[in-house]
Design brief:
There is one protein chain. By secondary structure, this protein is of the alpha+beta class. Helices cover 28% and strands 26% of the residues. It is built from five helices and seven strands. Strand 4, helix 3 and strand 5 form a beta-alpha-beta unit. Helix 1 packs across helix 2. The protein is globular.
Length: 171
């Protein structure tokens, strides 16, 4: 696994836990990730293998970035919920979040663990910097998604808006 050293700029602090549910929902919305309901967020955050978020160290202590890993703790890990608020992008926050998450995997996972993610075009350069490479993978969705209606149904079936699948290369 490629190791990338990254440092947060002054005025930010990385916290080694998932953000609060309300902050998670706000970050997803404002960073342009697909919408999610409160119950989904609560269940998802509880199911994290590890997570972290970045707080702006001002009076408001605003959560400005986050990332999570889901997985079984041994064989498979997936990077999810990578988000940085638009006004805080291009400052190394996403880099610091991803480096922290991958360090957690490095420290706990057995050799040969598989690490993957689904990447939107804006994130591909960041992921490549950390050793991920694009793979040709077909994504199948569970048939139950067809029972959903409206925007939720559109986001789960049909054209895959996430772009490409990526996996971590071995060093």
């Amino acid at each position: 696994m490629v190791r990338v050293d990254s440092k947060l700029p002054d005025g930010y602090r990385l916290i080694s836990t998932a953000p609060a549910v309300i902050d998670h929902l706000m970050l997803r919305e404002r960073a342009g990730l697909s919408p999610m309901g409160r119950r989904q967020a609560e269940a998802g955050l509880r199911g994290s293998w590890t997570a972290c978020h970045v707080v702006r160290m001002n009076r408001a202590r605003e959560t400005v970035a986050m990332g999570r890993i889901i997985g079984d703790g041994g064989c498979f890990f997936q990077v999810v919920d990578m988000a940085v608020l638009p006004g805080h992008q291009r400052r190394g926050l996403g880099d610091a979040v991803l480096a922290h998450l991958l360090d957690r995997i490095r420290g706990a996972a057995p050799l040969g663990a598989y690490v993957s993610l689904l990447a939107d075009p804006p994130g591909r350069r960041l992921y490549a910097k950390h050793g991920f490479r694009e793979t040709r993978t077909v994504v199948y969705r569970h048939g139950a998604a067809t029972r959903l209606s409206g925007a939720a149904r559109h986001s789960l079936i049909g054209h895959d808006p996430c772009g490409s699948c990526m996996e971590l290369t071995r060093d």
